[in-house]
Amino acid sequence: MDLYLILAISILLPSLWLYTAHLSRTSNPTFRKKRICLLIAHPDDEAMFFSPTLLALTAPDLGNHVKILCLSNGNADGLGKVREKELITSVKMLGLGSENDALLLDTSDFVDSMTSKWDKLKVADVLGRAFSPSVHKSNGRQASEKAGSNTSMATIDILITFDRHGVSGHPNHIALYHGAKEWLTALSKVKKSWQSTVDLYTLTSVSLSRKYISVVDALTTFSFGILWNMRASQRGNKPKGPRQLLFVSGMMQWRQGQRAMTNGHKSQMRWFRWGWIGFGRFMAVNDLRREDVA
Question: Which of 51, 78, 110, 214 has the highest CB neighbour number within 10 Å of its CB?
Fold first, then answer.
């Protein structure tokens, strides 16, 4: 009896995973022909946390232009220059069209450290310089006049980053969330219609019990997503973008994300990272939620 149960589970779980991956590609909303930026804190964030998102959104048939902005070179162990090169290797494996689509900063404002608290205003300043330069260089009446004459001054449509909990609780991750909201809030003050110009989506943090069950969490996340969308619909607000996005990697995509870590970020492959890429659910499942910006 136990043998039959083990056999049934060994067949059922992979089947549910692949079925959910199929549904996420064919039934769930996604982005098409959008200018998208993934905002990360360190080289390897894109592979460890966002590989399902990148592999999905860089699919050629969607026509998206995906960029990555990384605010530090991860120099905590003195390997900054090595990790800069590793980021380029990784993003190519994750579908970016050109290494020029990955921008990495090396500045004392953003030091890779668990004890370093990044200033959200400085994060917002970087985003402004990168993606809304015409507004960033202006202020007061001049900014308002420019906004009035051009309602699409941002050079991206979608910004993706960590949520308020940072997924792993890393303070650098959390700072990106607050900096992104600060930037978009500042844009909305220049002109009200900015609220519908750039959409902010954040990667949903989960409990420790779900963080290490890999693809098993795919169906759970899919079910939670349906319930969350139903509750959001009952509030009566209808945002122009989808409220939630679910990206579940199939077998080939999952292995590609793993290779982005093992082959791309070789300097970071310590013993505990093998556990993450083998059992971490973020290597296979990403659910993004649209943030409201006041």
Answer: 51
